[in-house]
Amino acid sequence: MKKNKLSTRSVxxxxxxxxxxxxxxxxxxxxxGIPNTQVNVAQSWLSLLTVIFGPLVGFLVAVIGHSxxxxxxxxxxxxxxxxxxxxxxLIFGLLIKKAQLLQGKLTTRKAWYFNLGQAGANIVAxxxxxxxxxxxxxxxxxxxxxxxxxxxxxxxxxxTAVIGTALLGIYTKNKVQKGHLVKED
Amino acid sequence: MDNLFGYQTGQTxxxxxxxxxxxxxxxxxxxxxxxxxxxxYLLLLTVIALLGLWQAQISxxxxxxxxxxxxxxxxLNLILIYVFAPQYGVHLFGSQHFILxxxxxxxxxxxxxxxxMVLLKYLFSLPLALIFLFTTNPSQFSAGLxxxxxxxxxxxxxxxxxxxxxxxxxxxxxxxxxxxARGYNISKKSSWTQKITGVVRILTTLIFSTLDQIDxxxxxxxxxxxxxxxxxxxxxxxxxGKLDAIALILALGFLVLGIGLMMINHSRYWNPFS
Lengths: 185, 274
Known about the structure:
The complex is a heterodimer.
Chain A: H1 8-27, E1 29-31, E2 38-40, H2 42-53, H3 55-74, H4 79-95, H5 108-138, H6 142-184
Antiparallel strand pairs in A: 1-2
Helix pairs in contact in A: 1-2, 1-3, 2-3, 2-4, 2-6, 3-4, 4-5, 5-6
Chain B: H1 13-16, H2 19-35, H3 39-55, H4 60-84, H5 88-93, E1 98-100, E2 107-108, H6 109-135, H7 138-147, H8 152-181, H9 192-223, H10 242-265
Antiparallel strand pairs in B: 1-2
Helix pairs in contact in B: 2-6, 2-7, 2-10, 3-6, 4-6, 7-8, 8-9
């Protein structure tokens, strides 16, 4: 028998994390002014969860959250983008694994690490994986999906850089304070 | 608003099918529709899906919003395809029959056929998904996932997601209102900086309450020895009946028909122009 790799905490983090991901996906979207393109806050939430719980949890949060959201908002699940979203979390999680982003305060160096990681993972997921799958699975015209992919790459990188970094900063700051309180006891 | 999934009890054929059977049928039919580029097959699939929707006795009131959204989304995509690749159909079918004018943006029969197929591909799965969402108890859905081979820890995570969506939704709107009352607005009128500050404020609150929730639920589950056994039983587990077997065979037959058509056509496309 294969050993069950997910701890109870991970299972719960995936479950509740995906619910929050879905709600953010559905209810907060900042329009950019370009039609059909919005800043998705859910991606920043996904990045933070991946930092805290690791790549596997991030992957499953993205896959479950994204596919459920597609199903309840459009009725059809756009598999190529669901998979791309999962791959984003997986690659991002692996890239930042060694950085120990949660140890101590968020320094400039760590912020750079976080952002280089998310940029790299976003480029692979949205400029490569999503368009390639769109062409293979849905046989969409190449130039259309590549433009869509590039647009989402840029938007995701910028929004994660602004909102994601802010969230990581706030999270680590509060976490450190909590740790100090325990020590003084 | 409270019930995003809209499961309703009822006595239709779809209610009597087990969750896992419905899940497999949904996946089989979706795969068939995604693979095939044969307009006859896609039309048949769409008609079957619509008949199913009618059989499931779902009222138009309940599905109006999602149908309108899906149609708008599909039409936008069709326009985008035309803007980016007006002669993609010609490229796919290898022939060119003009309907209107000439030049790079000329309307051809091939393009029309391709776009019609894309439209059907967007639309056929909507009735299927609606039937699934409206006739499947979420708990049966997770039990079904586990039954078709998804590890139970993942299936359980899906149960938690379904269970927490209404809670999170309520919490989200409460936090949003509180922040609005304090002057942090994220409506269309506010500036970019205001929107971003507002969003970060909502998220910060949501993150810490969510992390607390994760800890609480984890402790509760650990106290009940979650994950200690190799298998788990499900409260809503159902055994397969005759009806499930018939429905599964029909769905499988449909997929085989699709693959058969692909073999006759020698590709995923059916080409009426050759």
